[in-house]
């Protein structure tokens, strides 16, 4: 593995620890026959690949970050998933799909970019009638988000919380360890340094605002 690839791939491995929650949210959906799924803000595709596997359907992973998508595309090739997963470099604010395109829209850690309520409103038309929306977002006030879900034309199927302790044990503690090891062991390239800086910033935000790190999976059905 080249120096440039080393750090982000290790971060992806840590991200995989949270996949059990992607699976838990997916199991809250009814059985669907080879659904077509849009994953908004898919990053390097860790949850996207799991969705393709779980659903046996097709997934479009959309993100604005080209280097994360390059890593994702490499993985798709290596894993022989080109039939089931495609990627698209696009901002979520520029999405222009026909109405009623998808059986499921999935968004983990990305809806904050346009705001929870705004995202639910704008993305709704891309869902087929009776389609499903799964969003993993900061907890903030669950009550307000539940109201927004109803106001935006969805029925809540269910939700569950990931506590800050889960985030600490399964993500931030391993990330802190990785950052420490990486700084000791590697002379870093510019690009790796950027990834490292981003991870350090994430960690800093977590330490500063630990309560922000309660997050929630909301599983919804389009009315
Ligand atoms: C916290 S990461 C989550 C990645 C992935 N969903 C996951 O759970 O591992 C947020 C993602 O949103 C993407 N993002 C940020 N702004 C975006 C935009 N305007 N349009 C599309 N994606 C965006 C980032 O590039 C990043 O990959």
How is this fold's topology laid out?
Elements: H1 3-16, H2 19-27, E1 36-40, H3 46-55, E2 58-63, H4 66-78, E3 85-89, E4 102-108, H5 116-123, E5 127-138, H6 142-151, E6 154-162, H7 164-185, H8 190-208, E7 215-222
Helix pairs in contact: 1-7, 1-8, 2-3, 7-8
Structural summary, described in words:
With 223 residues, the chain is α/β, with parallel strands linked by helices. It has a single domain, classed as Vaccinia Virus protein VP39 (Rossmann fold, 3-Layer(aba) Sandwich), CATH 3.40.50.150. It is built from eight helices and seven strands, in the order H-H-E-H-E-H-E-E-H-E-H-E-H-H-E. Strands 3-2-1-4-5-7-6 form a seven-stranded mixed β-sheet, with helices on both faces. Helix 2 runs parallel beside helix 3. The protein is globular, with a radius of gyration of 17 Å. The structure holds S-adenosylmethionine. S-adenosylmethionine (SAM) binds next to helix 3.
């Amino acid at each position: 593995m080249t120096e440039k690839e080393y750090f982000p791939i290790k971060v992806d491995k840590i991200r995989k620890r949270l996949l059990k929650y992607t699976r838990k949210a997916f199991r809250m959906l009814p059985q669907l026959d080879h659904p077509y799924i849009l994953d908004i803000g898919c990053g390097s595709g860790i949850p996207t690949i799991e969705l393709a596997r779980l659903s046996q359907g097709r997934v479009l992973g959309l993100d604005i970050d080209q280097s994360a998508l390059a890593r994702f595309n490499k993985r798709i090739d290596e894993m022989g998933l080109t039939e089931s997963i495609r990627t698209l470099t696009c901002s979520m604010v520029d999405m222009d799909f026909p109405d009623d395109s998808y059986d499921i829209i999935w968004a983990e850690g990305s809806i904050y970019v346009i705001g929870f309520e705004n995202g639910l409103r704008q993305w709704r038309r891309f869902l087929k009638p009776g389609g499903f929306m799964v969003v993993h977002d900061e907890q903030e006030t669950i009550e307000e988000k539940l109201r927004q879900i109803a106001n935006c034309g969805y029925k809540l199927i269910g939700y569950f919380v990931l506590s800050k302790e889960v985030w600490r044990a399964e993500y931030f503690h391993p990330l802190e360890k990785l950052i420490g090891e990486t700084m000791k062991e590697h002379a870093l390239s510019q690009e790796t340094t950027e990834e490292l800086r981003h991870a350090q910033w994430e960690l800093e935000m977590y330490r500063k605002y630990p309560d922000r790190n309660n997050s929630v999976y909301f599983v919804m059905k389009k009315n």
